[in-house]
Amino acid sequence: MTVESVDELMIVAISRAAQLAYVEEAPGVFAYLSAADRFFRYHASKDRTATLGEELERLTDLAAIDASFSLRLEAPLDSGSLFIRRLSLIEAALELASRPGAEGPVLVEAAEGEAGAACALSRAGIRLLVPRA
Amino acid sequence: MASVLIVDDEELSRIAVRKLLSRLFPSVLVAGEAATGRAAVELALSLRPDVVLMDIRIPGMNGMEAAQAILSGPRRVKVIVLSAYDSFAFAQRAINIGVSGYLLKPVSEADFEAVFGGALAEIEEPSAAAERGRRPSAGAKRPPYPLEAEAEFFRAIARGEGEADPRAMVEALRSGGPEHFAERCLEFLSSFKRELRALGLSPEAAEASGFPSASEIASCPDPSSLEASLARGVVLALQALEEARCAGPRAAIERAIASLPLGELGLERVAERVGMNPQRLSRLFKELFGLRFVEYTSGLRVEAAKTILSEEELTVRELCRRLGWTDSAHFTKVFKSRTGLAPKAYARRLGSVRGRPR
Fold this sequence. Notes:
heterodimer, A: alpha/beta, 2 domains, four-stranded mixed sheet, two-stranded antiparallel sheet, 16% strand, globular, B: alpha/beta, Rossmann fold, Arc Repressor Mutant, subunit A, 18 helices
């Protein structure tokens, strides 16, 4: 099987499992599987760019499905119109979270800065340099 | 009362949509369900739903083609695409052909409410939309559907030997009052078909045995006549189920083949009638009949061609058209392999035997 066909099969399987959870009235399982469905669908996409807002939503989904990864979104962001390289923020967050000695949630906060610089790593977490909402 | 047709080849998806509808839009009637594009187009014409919820990847004619066919029909209908595929190309094509919304599976209640509610609002008067179809207000009470009676009825059907009591089921459906009877009948019809399918009888076979269709139920003004036809239909469907149980799958396949005109005889249509997927039918057919489906149906078509040629003078092209055979050269080859003569030569020989020129 190709990587693409495995991705497709996995997404379809998760989607079906989520539907089953809905039918069987398991809202927690439905929410979990819906987050997994959105994250893996986004991960498998061939698009090179995404809006920052979309990337942040998928980062939130990742935190919902991966118990070892936690996230704190500090402030609402005007992130809908800023395009970034797809998965760049997610990869940076995962890298940060997996550093030896890393503790506590990955922090994402809005800050005054130069628009277009998607994120910057800091000891405190990921510091986003994007305009405030 | 708005009605909806659900089109999806996966039963789980259809159940999920029914659940979304019953929770968020309890007064919307599910007029029917289809598992293929072709069946969807046919049901959209006969049931005349207000909204069609359409999956994209379905057997045969795909969801986009079916949606286009439905939207180009004479009646105004809203089509909402409901798919597991979030391809931009699909979404773009959906917009181009005029669908009203695109929902990605698994569908959340919030998304479904927004998109389906929007389509309903477009087809209804703004004031009526607020009154009908939507989630009822706290004060509005709708009698609960008799789920336990239905479950017991289905358990009795599964046990077989005439244990199911259609009268008790109809009585339970009636218990919510005459104003809810048609609505409950439609819900029961859908569940009943699903149950029959699970037990190996196709819903089409159930309908063919006299069960009232969704459109008949929806348009029936008289609850008492509906009650009688529902009870009669259930009894006949249960008889058909017993016959199918006795006769086995071979007889069910033969019945399905016999019920279709030769022009429409294909693996997909027969699979639909016997309630299994085409791949499974293809394998089962070879096991049961000792030859491939296409070989069997080619034989039927050649026999039908011989009968037609003995009665009428037709060109090979016209003959093929009547038999549902698209490639006349291939038909001639098959005909010759089975009869030793090409169709024209066969017709000429018939003419000379009867003493008339052909």
